[in-house]
Amino acid sequence: MGPLNNPRNEQYAAAAFTSQSVIFDELYSKNTIINYKRERVRSHVMQYLAPGSSILELNSGTGEDAIYFAGKGYKVHATDISPGMQHQLKLKVEKHNIGSQVSFELCSYTQLHLLKDKGPYDLIFSNFAGLNCTDELDRVLTSLAPLLNPNGKITMVILSEFCLWETLLMFKGKFRTAFRRFFSANGRKAHIEGSYFKCWYYSPSYILNRLKDSFDVLSVEGLCIVVPPSYIEGFAEKYPSAFDFLVKLENRLKSIWPWKYVGDYYIISLRKK
């Protein structure tokens, strides 16, 4: 466990995302597998949202999900530690004229006690491994319940401790990538377009053990189990038939043991007791 809130790594992560904020959407919005991942996550979330629900989003980035959920009639309070990402979100809110649906606040998820708008909310949502940027996820998890309404829910998308696709890369001689999650207790170096920071990997049991007294599990789904991770660039475009087949196969495997535990990510949802 690092020092409280591990501010240095958070600063590195914030700097990395801020440096890419202007071109972030351009870099990733046309990636077929990233779009597949977004659709999967949103579909998962929608099954748990009642009409008119309020959402607290952690590590909201440029606001792609906030804009989507606002378009569905939900109110979203989007938080991030990166000023650049928050600026891009603000521009989108103004462009879509949805200031009544989306608010935003510069706040780290490790310091939610400093959050100005404490809700309470119907859902706390964190997408695409933002929560993997801390070695103090336990502190984050214990801060969530007070921000939720009774029976409020949490949905988190977390990088898992084991990824089938990644491990299979050893057969292509990419041993560092294949085994990086096996030796990651002290974090592993991650990067966005050359900007570096650390990330940590967490199993579903890590989350469940820390929230079992205050939350009930709704579901756990694997994400990118047989569909390749998005860093396998061009796969969907080069092999469209194979990609379509893997998407259908993953839809059948996503909630089945052991498959739900071997994806690049897992989507986990819990309900406050």
Total domains, how many?
1
Overall geometry: globular
Question: Compute the gyration radius: what is it?
Answer: 18 Å
CATH topology: Rossmann fold
- Backbone structural class: alpha/beta
Helix count equals 11
Q: What is the average per-residue confidence, as pLDDT, rounded to a whole number?
A: 91
Estimate what percentage of residues fall within beta strands.
15-25%
Strand order of the largest sheet: 3-2-1-4-5-9-8
Distance between the termini: 28 Å
User: What characterizes the major β-sheet?
Assistant: 7 strands, mixed
The number of E-state strands comes to 9
Task: Assign the CATH class.
Answer: Alpha Beta
- The fourth-level CATH homologous superfamily is Vaccinia Virus protein VP39
Order of helices and strands: HHHEHEHEEHEHHEEHEHHE
The quaternary organization reads as single chain
Helix content: 25-40%
Task: Note poorly predicted spans.
Answer: 1-5
Return the CATH architecture.
3-Layer(aba) Sandwich
